[in-house]
Amino acid sequence: MKYGEFDSASLMYITNRPEILFERGEGSWLFDSQGKAYLDFVQGWAVNCLGHSPAVIRDAVVKQVNTLINPSPAFYNGPMIELAGLLTAHCSLDRVFFANSGAEANEGAIKLARKWGRLHRDGAYEIITFDHAFHGRTLATMSASGKAGWDTLFAPQVPGFPKAALNDIDSVAALIGPNTVAVMLEPVQGEGGVIPATPEFLQALRKLTRENNILLIVDEVQSGMGRTGRLFAHQHAGIEPDIMTLGKGIGGGVPLSALLATEAVSCFEPGDQGGTYNGNPLMSAAGVAVMRTLIAPGFMDEVLARGEYLAARLRELVARHGLAGERGFGLLRALVLDSDRAPAIVKAALEGSPTGLLLNAPRPNLLRFMPSLTVSEAEIDQMTAMLDALLKA
Ligand SMILES: Cc1ncc(COP(=O)(O)O)c(C=O)c1O
User: Fold this and answer.
1) What is the pLDDT of residues 220-252, one digit of tens each?
2) pTM value?
3) Pick from 70, 280, 313, 340: most CB atoms within 10 A?
4) CB of 140 closer than 6 A to ligand 1?
5) pLDDT tens, residue by residue, 170-183
6) What is the CATH number of the domain that holds 210?
7) Which residues in 350-383 are b (16+ Cβ under 10 Å) and which e?
């Protein structure tokens, strides 16, 4: 791929990118260098929660860029304090540390739990995680993940992440021992194929972790920030975790993530945790714009309504094409196909003419939908009409 006098061969090869150069985005739409439009139901992997280049984020970032970009994390700034206050006012956690990516927030959660274990549980350090979980691509978060093949990729792993089966409380109980400090899970396994932890399982997990004096960590990097129709997905189950991580949607497209903990668990001391960009006002200003949009009266009701609308349209496709089913929460949904044709559908959707469609296939028989939280019913109709034709083909 050429860009002026430059060539994409200068980039490190880490994935097979199609020969498309995206130049512009607006709401649910992306436009490439040839002027072709694409309806985007991936949104940077659930990152652009308010769509491409929404005015609220644009205005907040431009205003902040003109004022102060980065005084250094050693000093307070307004947006960092405002965003921490907005987040803690809308969940059961008390303290926030900001970082740049989901993996980094989870790495912080693992460190915080291990520190708490050293202080309060005789040096316990093991964190029970789950088969098919995805927590990021640093060494510790890869070790915490339950992705097939990741136990040997970049071996040796970081030790201390025994795996249980999602929605099987006995499998968790069987792993708890003197070295256990926490259980960590995604309320909805996203990369694993949009597999929700049931509310009953989350409630049983909360009870089990309390009885054993160990921590409950929810990784809401994908499921948080309104994605499932509640601000945070664990709120569907009415539980209160000890630690929560956020990423993706929190910055609405810019690199921002957060580690939140209760007062009792916030045991970092100076020197334990940090990072050059943590709490920088530029990204925090974007986070404030996102959070203020999500908590505006009626916004989350609209997300729930559009989630139900999308689910209903997907169920029509299930019936019409004899597919295996549909599942998910809010605007994080999956269509289970009748065969392993999801990658072929994703490719054909992208190549569609005159308009392309961006979909994602986390598993060969599964399509995942993560549109903007502001997606319209007309855009959902347009997507399902395009997908209907692709399923027929
Ligand atoms: C649940 C979950 N945790 C962590 C991550 C890692 O986030 P990042 O890619 O920003 O490091 C992801 C990314 O897909 C995720 O879905």
Assistant:
1) 999 999 999 999 999 999 999 999 999 999 999
2) 0.98
3) 280
4) no
5) 999 999 999 999 99
6) 3.40.640.10
7) eebeeebbbbbbbbebbbbbbbbbbbeeebbeeb
